[in-house]
Amino acid sequence: MAVAEHLKEQLRHLPHRPGIYKFYDDKGIIYVGKAIDIRKRVSSYFNKSTQHNKKTKKLITQIQRIEFTIVDSEADAFLLENNLIKQHQPKYNILLKDGKSYPYLVITNERFPRVLSTRNKINDGSRYFGPYPSVTSMYVILEMIRSLYPLRTCSYNLSPANIEAGKFKVCLEFHIGNCKGPCENLYDETEYNHHIQQIRSILSGNLSIAKNYFKEKMSAAAVEMQYELAHQFKLKLDMLDDFQSKSTVVSHTLTNIDVFTITSNEKCAFLNYLKVMNGSIISTQSLEVQKKLEETDQEILASIIMQLRAEYESSAKEILVNIDGLELPLEGITITVPQIGDKRKLLNLSMKNAMYLRKEKESMQDKSKDSSEVRIMETMKKDLRLTELPKHIECFDNSNFQGDNPVASMVCFRNARPSKKDYRHFHIKTVVGPDDFASMYEVVTRRYKRLLNEGASLPQLVIIDGGKGQLGMAVKALKDLGIYGQVAIVGIAKRLEEIFYPGDTLPLYIDKKSESLKLIQRLRNEAHRFAITFHRSLRDAGTLKTELTEIKGLGPATAEKLLSKFKSVKKIAELSQQELEQEVGKSKTQLLLNYFAQSK
After folding, report:
1. Where are the beta strands (DSSP E) in 402-505?
2. Running DSSP on this structure, what letter comes out for residue 484?
């Protein structure tokens, strides 16, 4: 891949220092990366010896400008990379977004704070809790809090001046007992803030402060023989106990831990996050991440850990993961892969959730593929006027070069997908010279004679890559085998993509956008590729071996032995006499040396 001169110049000026690098196209940043050595990392993208996948190659072709920022350490580079990805959201970076915004609970930053649900985080000093993947679970918690504490729901500006001026009047919420009327200064602000502090603890996963508070209130009311009030506090205490019992309790010894697991296939990674506080799982999220470039599981997990910890405002000092080799240069954070005990059980629970998501997504993809394949086969049946669904299709093609090494190929598709284990190569045995018609007759005869002898099932459709001549010879082969009429057969001519039927003088033209034609073209192209590849390998092998096998006294086995080890005649000619003797002995070494001496 050629590198533009202006990029070469930029590469030469990159530093051998830790930092981040940014790739730009004509619209802006398309990728942000970190590196211990910026020059080495960025240069590797343009190194011809480095193998890249299709997405990375596409990224490289779009790079028009490179910028970098030097930092003091790898940890600084890691944090800066994460911040820039969140800020710019480059299209080739892993981003934590799935098309929807999760809800939060927020304690507003105002006098007499409110507890509300929201989907938008605003940097206004309010305290956000969540996100909650389930709206239902979020509302269960919100309703519990409103049942426990008489909080205001109005949006009035309850400043001391406004309250003193008597600007507001109590509403229905006051009269039905859901609010104590701070708008008319009927609710002590100190007590209100004490309740807000308890709510913060509940939303953070710590129910003990609130439970102790209601226990004390219940006991005090009972001592004063206010049994009805004591019963109300008892109901609130039961509500907290019921909520806690429904939380997944893992172990009271596990206080503040984040658990992350990952499993992946070629295209996607599936992750699960568990947030554990005071022995209970208080938040969980499973997510699917599309791979953008050539990210490893370690790279994806590191990126998602940073994003989810920021999203959930996690302060956990211990992170449990399911893969080794994960490096997060974060001070004071311990990363472990537990093998036994409660932590291992917790990790297994997270892994079950990640695997469940993976199986669910892959099952949906398989169902979608199956539905698509049936639709394509139904369309082909209709377009080609077939009597049955073409679940098994075979396509033939010939290949030769000036009559040398004539070969043929057969590719097989089952349920509209390649079945590569059923692909076959054919050496043409009975035909002399470049005769495509006779070659087609031979390979079709050999293929279906073998299937008949083995008792194997025949295809529903045979496609011949060629016009009327090749199709006619293939039909003759089927007739000679006595199976013509049992198998549908058509030919496809390359120039106008004409479909020929046996005995029809006029071809069939299928809509260029038809899925039937696209599948036929795919079969034809695959058969052509398979034949050409086979023919080229034979031609190359023949070219290499001819020169050595022409040496009198040197057999094909010796030539193949030398070529398989040294790859070319040129390299064999450069060997010393001693090296040749070690490979083929003295007598054959002398034959080789004499031949190479005469060739100079």
Report:
1. 404-414, 417-418, 424-427, 461-465, 488-493, 498-500
2. B
Q: Is the dihedral of CA 197, 198, 202, 208 positive or negative?
A: positive
Torsion sign (Cα): 144, 145, 151, 157: negative
Q: What is the DSSP string of 30-93?
A: EEEEEESSHHHHHHHHT-TTS---HHHHHHHHH--EEEEEE-SSHHHHHHHHHHHHHHH--TTS
The alpha carbon of residue 375 and the mean position of all alpha carbons in its chain are separated, in whole angstroms, by: 26
Whole-angstrom CA distances from 414 to 134, 376, 417, 492 are 42, 12, 5, 19
Q: At residue 512, what are phi and psi to the nearest 5 degrees?
A: -60, -25
Give the Å distances, CA to CA, from 221 to 83, 177, 232, 408.
52, 19, 10, 95
DSSP 380: H
Q: Which residues pair with 272 in a beta bridge?
A: 261, 286
Please state, in angstroms and rounded to a whole number, the distance separating the CA atoms of residues 540 and 507.
Answer: 38
Beta-strand relationship, 256-264 and 318-321: parallel
b/e map 584-595, b = 16+ CB within 10 Å: beeebbebbeeb
Residue type (1 letter), 432: V
Residue 85 has phi, psi (to 5 degrees) of -65, -45
Distance, CA of 230 to CA of 498 (rounded, Å):
89
Phi, psi of 404 (to 5 degrees): -85, 145
Measured CA to CA in angstroms, residue 163 lies from 168, 174, 210, 213 at distances of: 7, 16, 29, 29
Selection from 390, 520, 411 nearest residue 460 by Cα: 390
Do the strands 268-277 and 256-264 form a parallel or antiparallel pair, or are they unpaired? antiparallel
In this structure, what token pair is assigned to residue 193? 């803030």
β pairing state of 488-493 and 498-500: antiparallel
The one-digit pLDDT tens for each residue of the chain (600 residues) are: 567 788 888 888 888 888 889 999 888 889 988 888 898 989 888 887 667 777 788 888 888 888 888 888 777 787 788 778 877 888 888 766 544 567 888 999 999 999 998 888 788 888 888 777 677 778 888 888 888 888 888 988 999 989 888 898 999 988 988 898 999 888 889 999 999 998 888 887 778 888 888 888 888 888 888 888 888 888 888 888 777 665 555 566 677 889 999 998 888 899 999 888 777 777 788 888 888 777 888 888 988 888 888 878 788 889 999 998 887 777 788 889 998 888 888 898 889 888 988 888 887 776 666 678 888 898 889 888 888 999 999 999 887 654 556 788 899 999 888 998 999 988 888 877 778 888 899 999 999 999 999 888 999 999 998 888 889 999 999 999 999 989 999 998 876 788 889 988 788 888 888 888 889 989 988 988 888 877 666 655 554 445 677 777 887 778 777 877 776 777 888 888 888 888 888 888 888 888 888 766
Evaluate whether 586 touches 580 at the Cβ level (below 8 Å).
no
Reduced 3-state DSSP string for 191-245 = HHHHHHHHHHHHHCCCCHHHHHHHHHHHHHHHHCCCHHHHHHHHHHHHHHHHHHH
